[in-house]
Amino acid sequence: MSQLGGMNADEFRKAAHAVVEEIISYNQNVASGNLSVLPSIKPGYLRPQLPSTAPQHPQTWDQIQPDIAKSIIPGLTHWQSPNFMAFFPACATYPSILGEMYSSAFTAPAFNWLCSPACTELETIVLDWLADALHLPKDFRSDSPGGGGGVIQGSASEAIVTVMVAARERYLNRRADAKDLKDPSPEREKWIADTRPKLVALSSDQAHSSTAKGAIIAGTFHKTVGTKWGEDLAVQPGALEATIKKCLEDGLEPYYITLSYGTTSTCAQDPVHLLAPVLQKYPDIWIHIDAAYAGTALVCPEYANTSTPATNGNIRKPEGLPMNDHDLSQKIDTAEPPLESPNGLLPAASDVLKHVDSWNTNMHKWLLTAFDASLLFIRNRKDLTSALSITPAYLQNKHTDSGLVTDYRDWQIPLGRRFRALKIWFVVRTYGIEGLRAHIRRTVRVGQHFEKLVTDSADGKQLFELVVEPAFGLTCFRIRPGAIPKELSPAQVQDEEESVETKKTINGTPFGTIEQQDDLDDLESTKKKQAQPTQSIEDLANAFSKQVVEVINDQGQLFLTSSSTHGKAFIRVVCGNANASQEAVTRAFEVIVNTTRDVLAKAVDEASRA
Ligand code: PLP
């Protein structure tokens, strides 16, 4: 090390080897499931371990590296653990880590083509590959006659706010053109300034919060279209049209809508094919599909060929396919599960997506690519570039002027950008499309194994109920109101009646088990004896479901989340992780069952002592 510090090539070689070894052993340790998925430290744990000021003098790598094991790893939540079933996964794989290494080495904030032509050109090529691999319409390719294309954004939230700004500008300019307001002119500028505060972005009440946040950043209103349990929590055409009409009556102008392909809470899918006819009546509304998590499933033809809700999120596993194949390069599952389409006539993704302006998915969630790699595809790149392109004198160059090159700075909010295409390139090449499909199919099957434990095991039937049809490896379930001990709620009769009624209508499918019929019979006989309700059994089922998640997370061996909507709280178990396995979800189910029994028993005990 020189007196000025830093690292020379020999020191880097030695340090990098040591880092690679440590990363491998960390990964193996995490994959084994032996590490507690949640750290056991308390908030503020790190400050006492580090000096209060930055070092005055250079330190060697031998002094620095041990602090990773000592201070950093104990404060990590292990997203790659098979016991991480909380949020949608963030899969990091070796090829994507290699991509990150090169990306750092080649650091070039390639805001325009000249600032590293390879960064731009590789991005365009891999995004075209992925548009095809994901079975998206050809319109989203960079060579489409309509001028579409893809760009890598840092996150789905960034993708959403970016297209929202493009949508806002497109809406205002189209409307100003329709009014024959000369461009540029002070009149046009004033009309746009007066109209902008009336704009409203729409989404379902289930859409990810990034749409609400995007609307704040874009400086517009945000209104939601209501959904219902009995309608798969998906936007329905009537509700959409009513919301648009109400906005117009109130003097607001809808300019943008997020439709979801896999909502965060339950993986609900808005039926684009049914909503498109409504939206075609309002052609200035920009349609964006947020497929942040579930969208990567479209790499499998069985998902892409049925882009219709309620069937494509839940493609059933053919019996006998492996469920524990961690090493996809060894054993590739290329079988396409049979479709369970009600009529076999469902529109393909590419047909449905012909109606939309933009679509995004995160490879850094389910598709084996280290954070961050959010793919945004757009039908007409001019919509983006005319909203976001500003070329001050210092950015002018003959290549940009020629119009022959892409300057991705005009497709995003920041100027500089990372070389993210490399890691995507490596992932796609080392897995191949078949390997990517195998990963999606395997993890969906792990999810279906978990679902069966909830619906078919003796414990599952006794304690739990699904709140929606599981989809894309996500199972949402809660404690059955009928499983709440009688000692806890003198009011259960009336509420159970409502609960069973609700169950009967979810998806139009009777989720209930035979025991729920028993509940009904029980209900009839005890109803007459019961006094007026004083406490809701639904509230108890909700509260205990949430408590089970809290107790499990406090123990740290398993990481789950709960969510709630329209009066129901529920537990979410996600199985998209690259290390997810049948064994891990079976163990998780045992923990959930035991914890549920403990929580209910403790509550009974406390109630009896009160
Ligand atoms: N959209 C959906 C449906 C999500 O589930 C999420 C995050 O889980 C997001 C958007 C936001 O993703 P990001 O963290 O990439 O902004």
UniProtKB/TrEMBL annotation:
Superkingdom, taxonomy of origin: Eukaryota
GO MF terms, alphabetically ordered: carboxy-lyase activity; pyridoxal phosphate binding
Name the record gives this protein: Aromatic-L-amino-acid decarboxylase
Family: Belongs to the group II decarboxylase family.
Any single Pfam family the record assigns to this protein: Pyridoxal_deC
Keyword Repeat: no
Xref: PANTHER family: GROUP II PYRIDOXAL-5-PHOSPHATE DECARBOXYLASE, MIP05841P
